[in-house]
Amino acid sequence: MMSEDSCGRKCCRVMYSCNWRQPSERKRKCSCCWLSVLTAVSLLTLFWMYVCLMAFNDREDVNWKAFSILKLWVNWFMVLIIIAAVLTVYCILLLVFALVQLALKEPLDLHCLHKLFLFLGVVFIALGTTGISLQWKKEWHTVLLSLQATAPFLQMGGVGALTLVSCLVFQCFQRTRRIASKILIMVVFAGVSVAIFLSPLLIQSPCLVEEKQLPPKPALIGHRGAPMLTPENTLMSFRRSVGCHVIAFETDVQLSKDRVPYLMHDHGSHFLRRTTDVLHKFPGKDFNHSTNLTWEELQELNAGDWFLKTDPFCSVSQLSEQEKKTAGNQSVPSLLQLLDLAKTHNTSVIFDLKNNDNNDTIDTVNTILKSGIPQDLILWLPPKHRVDVREVAPGFIQVYNDVSDMDLDRGDHLNVKYSALSATEIWELRSRNVSVNLWVVNEPWLFSLLWCSGANSVTTNACSLLQDMTQPDWTMRPDRYRMIWITVDLGSLLIMVTLFILQREREAKKGFSGWNQRELSLFLPSE
Question: pLDDT value at position 520?
Answer without folding.
Answer: 47
